[in-house]
Write the structure tokens for this entry.
Amino acid sequence: MAPAGSPGASGAGALQQSGLAHPRRPRRMSPSARVLAATLALLLSACASVPTPPAATPAPTMPPGTTSPTTSGAPAIVVRPPNIDRSYTSQNQDSRALYIVLHYTVIDWEKSLKVLTTGGQVSAHYLVRDNPVASYALVDENRRAWHAGASFWAGNTNLNSASIGIEIVNPGFVDSAAGRVYAPFPQAQIDEVIALVRDIQKRHQVKPERIIGHADIAPGRKQDPGPLFPWKQLAGAGLIPWPDGPLVLLKTLEHEVAPRDIAWLQERLSRIGYNISRTGQLDVVTKEVISTFQMKYRPRDISGTPDAETAALIEVASTPSAMRVAGASDTETRPYTSRW
């Protein structure tokens, strides 16, 4: 044994005190502890082996008409225009424009142009100026103009979708103590309207009875183009049919002797194309429709009263072959039966 105070003695004591000079035997682990330790080791190794995902990259922008990338990794979808062969044309078709509807603007040229071309929520295919006279194309004929609104004629509704609208610059009317006073149309402006209607009718093959006024398709709600618009001049130009004059005179005498009831008039007006029911009563709607009819065929009195002359005109206008259309000469007319 080393003497006290020697380096050896002090070193041995330190080893003894630390317990490392004579190490104890390790304890044996129970089976459950070994299983737990193995599980933890396996989990730690798995976490350490998960790779860090790469940063997402934006999808490539494809030029129009080439391919469309997919997010699933599938092949890109090819986008191409259709292969249309236009070498065949069907004979079974007609124009989208079945009607020509005439209006007046109620305002002057400058305001009419502004309203019809900006945010006024109304438009027309053409605007016919009063001074100087000229026609302005505002909406392509292949597109729908917003001019007819709620409308009906001969079973057809929503006529915006099937018509060409012509607005004519005209003040419309003023209400006075003596009654409603309508503004006339300059003859040069009417000549321009006739030329424009003839051109449209020829290109779209619009039937003569389908050249109508805004009032015809919305009686009471609308009055344009009003009683001073010369529909008879359009008839003289061969554009619209007109009641046979001698036959109207004969029928007027018949109605004076034996007047027809209101239900008969309503049925005849419906046959012409107006939106009217057969109620048998001279109600507000019936008077508005009669007044609208009078504006076109008997404008000197548009009160809506179903007198004998009005009844005769209604009968002739709703009878096959009783309407006439002008021919090549000023005196030649022929029966018009297209409606039937």
